[in-house]
Design goal:
heterodimer; A: mainly alpha; Rossmann fold; 6-stranded mixed β-sheet; 7 strands; about 55% helix; B: about 100 residues; alpha+beta; SH3 type barrels
């Protein structure tokens, strides 16, 4: 799971078409988990321009190469493959790009990246790639790992065997990367020659023959496989221990949730102070009162109240990054498989569902790797029920406003973190139960087996985690600066019209207030008033927008300024209504980006319409029941915790 | 798709068993895969090739899925898949 680089950009409108007159295109190809993306990020660096190309297939990333001032070199990061036989859709992308079936994307040269700690098996892919007869640099990644574990390979001999240049590198540390630049400069000068391998390439369809060819090549290059990764064995003895394993799994989950609350709070308080202080500082400098109100009440209170959540979201991505990069996530998938199976979910649904914790958009896209169409649709349909990071600000705001932070398990787990964890579990259960329902009714299928490669444990690098966080900040800030900013300004306008004698009306009498009042009978049974109604309406664009909306409304009423958003919420929500609002957000499909991507992925409006409807009904019924039945229990729980 | 190593020794067919029947820590040599072509292909690309030695590693709680070590990597398979891989005990172990 490499994660979506830019999920805010995935909706159809914003992709960049491939350049009409192709620059120099160089493809990066390799088996899954061989370090392609690490190398891609290293070569393109922070100048990377990531674009997502739509199609029937899995995305590939395009980035501009660093340190090439005089000409345009585009690197294409292709989905990981074990072979070039196009069977599933993601393999077809790699196949199509490499064989020149994608106009404007025909590669001039190929960087074939292989994990040299397992060269015998990884060389399997070299046969079909070399058969393309394109200038190819064979990159042996994880050189440091090979050395540390006592492995060996003769690069010059391997190069002679393969008839292609070979570079021994470490993409993570940057060792040997200069050889890649030399190769790329060489292709520009036309110096790269294509030679035939010493041992004739085998028939590509015959995997046993390809594997024997790979062994012969490896033997010719004096390849000595490294010792088994001793630390991986030791750690697996602990993490996959019959009873310690699940306990550690649980502890990891609790740690993540507790720290999202406990560690992020001081930074978030700091952010809040900065946002408020800067708003107060800006206000006197704006001469026109109406403009001042737009900037301070509309933009500052609105966008500012969302910005406060950036540290928390970064903390979540920090943990996701560590779990992914270290290799623990594969073990977690293994431990969770039994549970997943009970719900009729196949192993392959697991990765898309895990990535939905970040954002449903990349999750829906990664469902493309599921060959079975019905399984794929089922996975797409349930992905938005998983708790994405856009829900985090809403959850945090409401939980912190209503629930006292009493420690439950000493300092390990507080009541607020436990409530947040509960909401994540709720989303997960809703997703798997829906999957079960779909698969036993309209989307019956046989399914594919669970095959999961266990990567060795590795230390996550600061560089890789840092890049993710930087990327995530960009996505978050862009969303705050576009969708949320526009909605906040529109809301401010709607809250200031119609003018009476040139003066803005009370917010309750404004257009925004009127719309809210029209909605009120519908949402009253859920425990929401017209202000929450406006929030629900604006949050259709993106979930976090409700936080901005409430910030703007209360900002105009002067409540947020005097008491803060959390206190202001108490005047409009009963504890039962607060629970109802949380449940509404857990279930409702409030994300235009996701609907757009589901339409694109399923090729029509049918499935997004079904999804919007079923999630809406689920949200309404869930919130209704919560408000009507659980209101008293929530009030007592809060009193008990105080 | 049936991919197998040709053998005339009828004695050996008696020592055939499926991969899921092995105990943790045991090793065996893959004889053939009794699975549809696309799945066998995927497994062969991951190293499950006839003639390769497979060792049983750690398992998830409850014993399923299990991790198998083959051709330099570790791959987790569910019982339902592992039971379709037919293996041979090495001669010294079966004796």
């Amino acid at each position: 799971m490499s994660g979506c680089h830019d999920c805010a950009d995935c909706p159809a409108a914003k992709f960049t078409p491939p350049p009409a007159k192709a620059a120099h295109v160089i493809a990066i190809v390799g088996p899954p988990n061989s370090g392609k993306s690490t190398l891609f990020n290293r070569l393109t660096g922070l100048h990377q321009k990531v674009a997502n190309f739509p199609g029937v297939t899995v995305e590939h990333h395009v980035g501009r190469l660093r340190a090439e001032a005089d000409r345009e070199v585009l690197l294409v990061d292709l989905p990981g493959v074990y072979s070039l036989l196009p069977r599933s859709e993601d393999e077809r992308v790699t196949h199509d790009v490499l064989t020149g079936l994608r106009p404007g994307m025909e590669p001039e040269a190929v960087l074939l990246i292989l994990d040299c700690t397992n060269l015998g098996r990884h060389l399997l892919l070299a046969a079909p790639i070399l058969n393309l007869k394109l200038p190819t640099l064979v990159i042996l990644n994880m050189a440091d790992d090979l050395r540390n574990r006592g492995g060996q390979v003769d690069v010059a001999k391997l190069s002679a065997e393969l008839g292609a240049p070979v570079a021994l590198i470490s993409a993570a540390s940057g060792e040997g990367v200069e050889k890649i630049y030399q190769f790329i400069q060489g292709t520009a000068a036309g110096r790269a020659k294509v030679k035939a391998p010493l041992i004739q390439l085998p028939v590509l369809q015959d995997i046993p023959k390809c594997r024997r060819w790979a062994s012969e090549v490896g033997a010719g290059a004096a390849y000595r496989a490294p010792e088994p990764p001793r630390w991986t064995r030791r750690l697996d003895a602990v993490f996959l221990h019959p009873w310690a394993g699940p306990l550690i799994f649980l502890a990891v989950v609790i740690l993540v949730f507790q720290s999202i609350f406990a560690w992020a709070t001081p930074v978030m308080d700091g952010m809040k102070t900065i946002v408020e202080a800067s708003g107060e500082w800006v206000a006197p400098h704006i001469p026109v009162p109406l403009l001042r109100s737009l900037v301070v009440d509309g933009v500052w209170s609105g966008v500012g109240s969302v910005l406060v959540f950036l540290p928390q979201i970064l903390l979540l991505f920090f943990f996701i990054g560590i779990l992914e990069d270290s290799g623990y996530l594969a073990r977690a998938a293994l431990i969770a498989d039994r549970t997943m199976r009970k719900f009729g979910l196949q192993g392959k649904s697991f990765i898309p569902l895990l990535s939905a914790y970040a954002c449903a958009v990349p999750a829906v896209m990664s469902a493309r790797t599921i060959e079975n169409k019905r399984d794929r649709i089922a996975t797409i349909m349930i992905a938005p029920l998983m708790t994405c990071s856009a829900r985090l600000p809403v959850y945090t705001l409401i939980i912190a406003a209503f629930l006292p932070n009493r420690p439950l398990l000493g300092p390990i787990l507080g009541a607020q973190a436990a409530a947040l964890l509960g909401l994540y579990v709720l989303g997960f259960l809703a997703a798997v139960l829906t999957a079960r329902l779909l698969k036993s009714s309209i989307l019956k299928s046989g399914g594919t087996p669970f095959v999961l490669e266990m990567p060795p444990y590795r230390w996550p690098t600061f560089r890789s985690i840092g890049l993710r966080l930087l990327d995530r900040s960009r996505v978050f800030l862009r969303k705050a600066g576009t969708v949320i900013l526009v909605v906040a300004m529109l809301l401010w306008v709607a809250a200031h019209l119609p003018l009476h004698n040139g003066k803005a009306p009370e917010i309750a009498q404004s257009f925004a207030g009127q719309i809210g009042h029209v909605m009120e009978p519908l949402i009253k049974p859920l425990g929401f008033d017209w202000k929450i109604g406006i929030g629900l309406l604006t949050s259709l664009a993106a979930r976090e927008t409700i936080v901005a909306t409430l910030g703007t409304i209360y900002g105009m009423e002067g409540e947020a300024a005097s008491h803060g958003l959390q206190q202001a919420l108490h005047t409009d929500l009963t504890p039962g209504g607060a629970l109802a609002l949380l449940i509404f957000f857990a279930f409702a499909m409030q994300c235009m980006s996701t609907l757009a991507i589901v339409r694109r992925e399923t090729g029509g409006w049918k499935w997004p319409a079904v999804q919007f409807a079923y999630m809406g009904v689920l949200a309404y019924i869930g919130a209704f029941l919560a408000n009507q039945l659980a209101g008293g229990a929530v009030t007592r729980l809060i009193a008990f915790l105080q | 798709m049936q991919v197998s190593v040709k053998k005339n020794d009828s004695e050996d067919t008696r020592s055939l068993l499926h991969l899921a029947a092995l105990e943790p820590g045991q090793e065996a040599v893959l004889d053939h895969l009794r699975l549809p072509e696309d799945i066998s292909r995927r497994l062969m690309e991951l190293g499950f090739l006839p003639g390769h030695t497979i060792a049983v590693g750690k398992a998830a709680p409850g014993g399923d899925p299990r991790v198998y070590r083959v051709d330099g990597s570790e791959v987790a398979l569910r019982y339902e898949t592992a039971s379709r891989l037919v293996v041979r005990r090495p001669r010294k172990a079966s004796a």
